Amino acid sequence: MKKILVLSGYGVSLRARKGMFEISEKGRKPVQVAPVEIEAILIDTKAASITSSAIMLAAKLGIDLIFMDKWRPLARLLPATYGSTLNLWIKQLVAVKKRRLEYAKTFAYAKAYNQRMILYDLLKRFPGTKFETRRIRARLNDSIKTITEMLKMIDEANDVTRVRSYEAQAAKSYWKAVSIVLPSELNFSQRIKRYSGIDPDPFNIALNIGYSALLREVWRAVFVAGLNPYYGFLHVRRPGRMSLVLDLMEEFRAPAVDRPLIRLGRKNPKIFLKLKNNNKESVSLIWQTIIENINKQPHSIKSKILTQARKLATSISEKKAYTAYKSKW
């Protein structure tokens, strides 16, 4: 697998020298890298200099130049010729037409599967025999059974509309189960999506913050992998909507965001209650909780997101099956 060349230090420079990329940084010996080893060049600093010869070499060989600000994608420079990125984009458009159901089922199945894993994990935390525990275990088992049925339906679906319907039914049952394990003062009963027009409860506000943090990471990975973020498979394409980013997010919503927020909500609900007043400290803590979970070593979710994006690009480019990320207990 080719490397990603990252320029993030202060005063770092990139130039082309005798067909090679040369990276220079103050106080260090220049390092040369062969273009054949590079898939993309990421610039995440305002203090970098890039020569026109380096830009031309990258463009000639179809190497993406991606500009970021605090790891948020800002822009990418595409070669005017029919290079690797444009070639991938064309193959992606073809895949959207010919393989949309295949990919939509894969994303939806992974989302429901990972939600079920969260419920299995919660079930282990209620081993007692008290009435309240029995009630919670019954709700969790009912939702696990429903999601298992929906997984079968997703696998057998013959159109994308039905895939979305089964995924939505699995999600509805999942959030009902989550609601019963959260403290009653959070007043959480169902997932309320942003822009729904409904005033969200504190836990829904936290979910929105968490998914925003996750969106940033998936967006970055899609850029790095050279995919077009606007042409997806499961989500409907609309102007300005990054459908493919939302598709890839589905695999990671439960392990990256739901799991840590459920744990935090059960442990310290007061943090969530302050979100109703847009308390900056609480907002910051929720964001930090998700980022720390995504970056937790070893085998960080952040690295898994990038791996999945690159697997998806390979799947589209080489017309191979795509294997989604499935979490473990």
Q: Briefly note the CATH topology name of the largest domain.
A: Four Helix Bundle (Hemerythrin (Met), subunit A)
Radius of gyration: 22 Å
Return the average pLDDT rounded to an integer. 91
The largest sheet is: 4 strands, mixed
Strand order of the largest sheet: 1-5-7-8
Provide the structure class: alpha/beta
Q: Please state roughly what percent of the residues sit in beta strands, choosing from under 5%, 5-15%, 15-25%, 25-35%, 35-45% or over 45%.
A: 5-15%
CATH class group of the largest domain: Mainly Alpha
What does this structure look like?
This protein has two domains: 3-81, Ribosomal Protein L15, Chain: K, domain 2, CATH 3.100.10; 89-318, CRISPR-associated endonuclease Cas1, C-terminal domain (Four Helix Bundle (Hemerythrin (Met), subunit A)). The mean pLDDT is 91. Helix content is 55%, strand content 12%. The chain is of the alpha/beta class. The longest helix is centred in the middle third of the chain and has 26 residues, at 131-156.
